[in-house]
Amino acid sequence: MIILFNKPYGVLCQFRPVAGRLTLKNFIHQPGVHAAGRLDADSEGLLVLTDDGDEQHRITDPRHKLPKTYYAQVDGIPGDDALAQLRAGIPLNDGRTRPAEARLVDPPDWLWPRDPPVRFRKNIPTAWIELVLREGKNRQVRRMTAAVGHPTLRLIRYRIGAWSLQGLPVSASMKIP
What we know:
Layout: E1 2-7, E2 34-35, E3 44-50, H1 53-60, E4 68-75, H2 80-88, E5 91-92, E6 95-96, E7 101-105, E8 126-133, H3 140-147, E9 152-160, E10 163-164, E11 173-176
Parallel strand pairs: 3-9
Antiparallel strand pairs: 1-3, 1-11, 2-3, 4-8, 4-9, 5-6, 7-8, 9-10
């Protein structure tokens, strides 16, 4: 069984309760499923859950190179050089990232309001980058955008392989047959 969940900002990717925090337990009421990968509390978007250990491994293991698409709102407007660096791979303290697909995009028209909203600074513009990764280092998108001088303000995972957020409202889940 596969469950797609549109994780809101601030929710922890665990079922174990934490005082004063929302966790998957507050949203997913199907026993026996586990998240195939994680999203930090301050990241939003697609989380795939399954009760099949082999499927969970296929989704998370970088050897399978399952593409994961993210939309990152970043400080400033990245130029061609910053995008080229993201495409080539970024050296991080735990090793160089694999090359990524990276391009500037318009703000997504399907985007929901975030609570709390992203901070607004009148004198610093923001831009949206679409990134497609085939690995999953800890806080990878945030570290990559910061390394090219454009820290991430908001991060949404939109797609994992063939699964996407299309038609899935924030905080909602859907079983895939």
